[in-house]
Design brief:
Shape: elongated
Radius of gyration: 14 Å
Strand content: 15-25%
Order of helices and strands: EHE
């Protein structure tokens, strides 16, 4: 069963439509024809605590 999991920093809430992004990734994976429709899982996991590489943004 294929899983596509993405983690994102909570500062992206309201900036990125993760529901739409998950739907697009799911459509792309299923369109490949490599996996049966019921097998594909796409998830976005919100991370509350993080430090960004450029150190300009961090969790509150």
């Amino acid at each position: 069963m294929p899983h596509f999991t993405m983690e994102y920093s909570s500062n992206l809430d309201g900036v990125v439509d993760f529901k739409a992004l998950c739907a697009e990734v799911h459509a792309t994976i299923t369109a490949s024809g490599l996996f049966e429709l019921g097998a594909v899982r796409v998830r976005a996991i919100r991370c509350e605590v993080y430090a960004v590489a450029d150190r300009l943004r961090k969790s509150q």
